[in-house]
Amino acid sequence: MEYTPKLSSKAGLLPVASNMSSMNNKQSYSTRDVVYFTLKQLILSLKMPPGTAISEKEISLEFQVSRTPVRESFVRLAQEGLLEVYPQRGTYVSLIQVDLVEEARFMREQLERAVIRLACENFPNEQMVALEQNLAWQQECRVKPDDERMFQLDEEFHSTLFAGCNKSNTWTVIQQMNVHLNRSRMLRLSSDHQWDHLIEQHRSMVKAIQQHDADTAERLMQEHLHLTVTDLAVLQDTYPSYFQ
User: Crossing angle, helix 179-191 and helix 147-164, to 10 degrees?
Assistant: First the structure.
C-alpha cells in the first residue's frame, strides 16, 4: 500500500500554514509540531491505514514545508510506535500490534475501574454536567454516524471521569500507551455503526455514579473495556493486513 499525495482533497488536510492557524491560537506551535500532530491524527483516524508507505519528500510537498520538520516528525512518530523505518526500504505506518493493544487495555481497565469507584464517592457537579452533555452528543452521533466524532466523544467521556477525580495526569500517562489500542477502537467504530450498546454502557456508568453505586460502576467499566478483546478478534479476521 502506498501513500497517495494530495491528502488535502481526500482527508480534509490543510496546508501547514492554514492548519497552524486553526490550532489553539493561545499557544505557539512550530511547523514541526503542526506536521507531527496532523500526521498523527491521519494515522490514528486510519486515513493513513496500517502498512501505508510514506516518504519525507511526498509529505514535505503536500504540507508545503521543508524536509527537516517532516524528518523530525517521522522520528517522533517512530518513537511512539506509529511509524516503522526500514533502511533502504522506506517508511511505513506501523501495523497494529495485538500484544500492545491488550497491554494498553489491561492498564486502562485497572486504572479506570479504580477511578470510577472514586467518582462514586465524590464527583463534581461541573464534570457531571459535562458527562451528561457528552452523552447527548453521543446520541446525536448514533442518529447521524460520525466515526471520528464518536471516537473523540468516547475519549472525552473517559477523560472527564479522570478530571473529575483529580487524576488528569494519570489519563495523560494512559495516552502514552494507547496508540495501538486507539487505532483498533477507531477501526471498530468505523466498521460497525451499531453504537447503541456502547452509549448505553456510558449512560449506565453515569447513573451508577449519581447513585454512588461503586460496585455496579466498576462492573460496568470492566465489561465496557472487555469489549475490546471480543472486537479485536473480529477485526483481525476482517482486516488481517492491518495487524501484526
Answer: 130
* The C-alpha cell that represents 51 in the structure block: 502498512
Write out pLDDT tens, residues 137-194. Answer: 999 988 888 889 999 999 999 999 999 999 999 999 998 888 899 999 899 888 887 8
Q: Global pTM? A: 0.81
Reduce the DSSP state of residue 111 to 3 states and report it: helix
Computed from CA positions of residues 120, 121, 125, 130, in that sequence, does the dihedral angle turn out positive or negative?
A: negative
Are 165 and 119 in contact by the 8 Å Cβ rule? The answer is yes
Within 10 angstroms of residue 99's Cβ, the number of other Cβ atoms is 9
* 46 dihedral zone (left: phi>0; alpha: psi -120 to 50; beta): left
Q: Which cell numbers hold the place of 18? A: 492554514
pLDDT digits (tens, 9 = 90+) for 19-52: 444 444 444 578 888 999 999 999 998 999 999 9
Residue from 97, 16, 115 nearest 50 by CA = 97
Q: Is 50 helix (H, G, I), strand (E, B) or coil?
A: coil
SS3 assignment, position 28 = coil
User: How do the residues of the chain divide into helix, strand and coil, expressed in percent and rounded to 5?
Assistant: 70, 5, 25
Dihedral sign from CA coordinates of 11, 22, 80, 176: negative
User: Could you tell me where the DSSP H helices lie in 65-124?
Assistant: 67-79, 98-121
